[in-house]
Amino acid sequence: MIGFNGTLFAYGQSGSGKTYTIDAMRTYVIEAIYDHIRNCPSREFILRVAYMELYNEHLSDLLTNKPLHLRETTDRNLFIEGLDEEIVLSQDHFHQILKKGNDNRTFAATSQNDHSSRAHCIFQIAIESRVREDGEDSSVFISQINLVDLAGSEKAGENSGNRFREGCSINLSLLTLSQVIRKLSEGDKNAHINYRDSKLTRLLQNALGGNSRTAILCSVSPSSVEETMSTLRFASNAKRVKNQPKQNEVVPIEAKLKRSLLENERLKKEIEELRRGNLSSLDHLPSVKEGEIESHKERKDLEDLSTQGRDRNVSSRRRGRGISQVSVWINAKYSLYDI
């Protein structure tokens, strides 16, 4: 809700309860989102949802029944061509969209489950928010939540015909997912991660070692010890994967310009104060924020230079590092431009 991405996906054997659990989590997430919105009257929110299915390595939109294609931008970021995003008007509308997508999902009976999901499904919620009072100039926080119901792993030989082909495709994508998780869990930064070997891992790439807070729900069943052990090994590897979530903030051009102008003026005033020698210490500057001076040494150097404006008897070494150098340093640090 404050600009961080999140992913929850369920992994486990067919018939172990993944779909029921994810259905319940969707309801819980929707309620939590609207509770947060009601408790934040100072911010305005826009919610967008998308619902997609990966069946036999073919990606489709569950809201429009149209095929989708994975594409890359010039800076190597993934986007889904043709994906329809609906703006959510209310909590009831949220559930209507969800039901519409669920009605188009691919289910079939297997040896393990009479109503088995035969495709990986991703329910995607995009949340944008900004402060109401600042209007169009305010920065926007953008969060993306992915709720993923993976198709169940099972022995392909236990089915026949279409179910056999589906099982082979499901197991291949889950095998690639397991390999990616295992490679990431080893912590080798130079290792090649084979995200491209499956569309599933491409879709989940951000959630696997990337910019997302990720939770994995592993479901097990007493019907198969072998499948249960495989799921537990997957969970053991997954818990060692480290992601790098970051806050996603988009600042409009007008707001960026306004911020730059204000920062430019503030720093120019500080430089003038240093030139006049009116600063006895940088601690007297309430506008200096914590973190703008990278180290105690840099702060001490600037304090020494401000003292230089009043004390003519300092050493030649101090005089050699004059105010002009401070100006160059600050301009270089903050990329100042004359307006």
Automatic annotation (TrEMBL):
Subcellular location: Cytoplasm, Cytoskeleton
Region spans: Disordered: 285-318
Keywords carried by this UniProt record: ATP-binding, Coiled coil, Cytoplasm, Cytoskeleton, Microtubule, Motor protein, Nucleotide-binding
Chief localisation class: cytoplasm
Binding site for ATP: G12, Q13, S14, G15, S16, G17, K18, T19
Pfam families: Kinesin
Biased composition (Basic and acidic residues): 286-314
Single GO molecular function: microtubule motor activity
Span of domain Kinesin motor: 1-241
Gene Ontology BP annotations: microtubule-based movement; mitotic cell cycle
One Gene Ontology cellular component: microtubule
Family note: Belongs to the TRAFAC class myosin-kinesin ATPase superfamily. Kinesin family.
Protein name per the record: Kinesin-like protein
Source species: Elysia marginata
